[in-house]
Amino acid sequence: MPQPPVPSRRAVLTGAGLTGVGALGATAADAAPLPVEKPAEAPIPGKASMIGVPYEQRDTVRIGLIGLGARGGSMASGWAAAPGTSIDAVCDIRADRATRTADALEKEGHPRPREFGGADTSFQEMLDAVELDLVYVATPWEFHYPHGKAALEAGANAVVELPVACEVDELWDLVATSEKTGRHLSLSENTCYGRNELAMMRASHAGLFGDLTNGHGAYLHDLRALMFDENYYTNHWRRTWHTTHNRSFYAMHGLGPVANAMDINRGDRITTIRATATAPKALADYREKFMPADHPSWADTYIKSDLITCLHDTELGRVIRTEHDVSSPRPYSRINSIGGTRGMFEDYVPVGESGARIYTEPDHGDDAWRPFDTYREEFDHWLWRTVGDDAEQNGGHGGIDYLLQWRFVQCIRLGLVPDIDVYDSTTWCAPVPLSEESINQGGAVLEMPDFTRGRWSEVRQGMDSHEKEMP
Prior knowledge:
The chain has 471 residues and is of the alpha/beta class. The chain is built from 16 helices and 15 strands.
């Protein structure tokens, strides 16, 4: 019997076709569920939800930067290049980095920002002294939570590198602080602005793959050389995390794009997480082969597994798999895949110009993959059509860094709702601590927090924004 037509997300948002949660996917299966253990942390009561709340409109976005190492320093030029911005302050615990960044911005023709640095309290000095609309945080992971929270409490919006916080209670506190201050905190998840990721999302929302049933995402990146380079990660902070925690540090790199395609927090929600882990062997093996006897890494004992895999169930009966591996010799991949009742999409394969492949009915019927190229052209996001050339010239990672920066600035200048809100940000980061808890309990199934406090079923816009011009 032929299947009834699947309503597109656009039809749902405009009121045509089916309405409510059922319009976005199948109901959960009737099979007996695995026992689920709830997280110990209780939700912190919020004042007022930030769902659907626009930024306060600003003609010029006054920006402050906290953390100017390898990541933060490389992002400074992109923030300054976005139309209608002013980099008013830069800060790093190492004052010379603030001076270096200010010098570079001035050399590029921008006004010289105020410099703060030299102490672990310099970020607060900056927030107290300079009125800012947006604070970008790119410090080591353990500082993201206090720096992001301080930015909100100072009256600024915050864009924070991955993860926004490292513990569940910290994530809840960021939600509550955002709601209390009325300021937005967003994860700086550049992968959500990838051309393939956005086209995959738009094709999913248009119903190309039918009812979505599963998605896969990952951060698979051989970082061994950088982690053992004493000049790259200051005080080898990233390698140190591998000696203290066994968790999926960067699950959100793959989870974010899949969550966008599935409308997580916008009609569906992630309900559970369970994690598995391999033995931690690759970093010790690399050290054995390449590090001299006097290298500081010989004092390390690595406990972080080489490959951590997380499985998530959703309210609508879907399954999301994410993987994290930065220790093994392998080509880079974020997997980036989605599947449904009418076909599937797979990224990071050497097929066509797009590097992705697709199989979908009724277009295909011979069990043969096709290049994604023509579909990407059809479902290309307006950001890539209008800003793509500038992005590739001004930003790293193939342009996705600048596209993220440009869009956040545009949302503030127009007074729009952010593409990625605090509820998305905390949901995507919750697997960081929860993966470790699940592993420590032998792969136990844990409940994922609902940071929206029950509003996940509301169908609303996200990354699939309407085209607008930059003022």
